[in-house]
Amino acid sequence: MKKILKSKKTFNVFIIVAVILIVGSILNIPFLPKYIEGPGSAPNLKNVVKVDNHNDSYKGKFMFTTVSEMQASPITYLWAKINPHYSIEDDVTDGQSMSSYENLQNIYMRTSISNAVYNAFHYAKKDVSLTYQGIYVLEVDKKSKFYGFIQPGDLITSLNGHSFKSSSQFRKYVKSKKIGDNMDITFYRGKKKMHVSKKLYGLAGSKIPGIGIVLTDNNEVKTQFPVKVNPGQVGGPSAGLMFSLEIYQQLVKKDIRNANAIAGTGTIDEYGNVGEIGGIDKKIIAARDNGARYFLAPYVKPTKEVISQEEDHMTNYQLAVKTAKKYAPKMKVIPVSSFSDALQKLKKL
């Protein structure tokens, strides 16, 4: 009789454990129509950047920082509700399909790498050239006549049969036209060559003619030495500054970081200007968790107009300082506005 009771008790315990495991598994399935963003990784750039015959054997490290993104499960949703380093988002793709979003992020990354390579070689006084190849479409205004015909990720190569040597020439040509004029655009979607002809409209309700796209240059960079930058599955433009610093360090064969662990973020253009990014508060936490002593943050002057457009009404630098003060007090945040500015700030460490 005792054996039977013991067997029933063991069976009941087994059932309870099985139910808990099943319920736990279901609650961890990411099926909610929300997304969770949080601190990502901070990879050591010694393992990401390789300049031919130029190794980084110095102490310390440069790190680029990321933000993690995942579809929400009931468990991760509740975790994000109580953890100040995580946020719940309605959408992370800006209304695009996931494939279009990932393609756009890859374009951002390729552009970021090209600009980083160019700046590093230029400032290291090594042979380098930058050749304009066309315009990548990053966004299309819903009010544009071209909306639905041109997509983010498309590569525009000519307007009305005219090719250009820079995006400034591209913009100048469009502005030389009138609202209502036809514009024939030749572009590539992947390897497929396509054409579309529509009328120009007034940008933001103004009298300035436009196509209605946010764009970035597609530039080809040729260098004196082969350079490989392998960020893995990471996309987006925000690692540009840190890529450029690691490439530069390998080129000049000097310890420009003075044996420090330095993390950071920020876009970089072909002129060396450093731009703001998203999720810098989460990147501060990623840097802290990976032992960073310093964090390089994009800096823009916090005018009233700038602040009004900023997320949480704070610039990247202001939000980074606020986050570090509360959660990473031993890590110093350094404002950076350009590649040359970053080099000067590093000399003072």
Structure, explained:
With 349 residues, the protein is of the alpha+beta class. It has two domains: 35-96 and 105-127 and 224-347, Ribosomal Protein S5, domain 2 (2-Layer Sandwich); 130-219, PDZ domain (Pdz3 Domain, Roll), CATH 2.30.42. The chain is built from nine helices and 18 strands. The protein has helices at 2-27, 74-82, 98-123, 167-175, 240-252, 280-289, 304-309, 316-327, 339-347, and strands spanning 35-39, 49-51, 61-64, 67-71, 87-89, 128-140, 155-159, 182-189, 192-199, 201-202, 209-210, 213-223, 227-229, 261-264, 267-268, 274-275, 294-298, 332-336. The strands form six sheets. A five-stranded antiparallel sheet has the order 9-8-7-6-12. A four-stranded parallel sheet has the order 3-14-17-18, sandwiched between helices. Strands 4-1-5 form a three-stranded antiparallel sheet. A hairpin with a 5-residue loop joins strand 15 and strand 16 (274-275). Helix 3 (98-123) packs parallel to helix 5 (240-252) and helix 6 packs across helix 8 (316-327). The protein is globular. The termini are far apart. The model has no long low-confidence stretch (mean pLDDT 89).
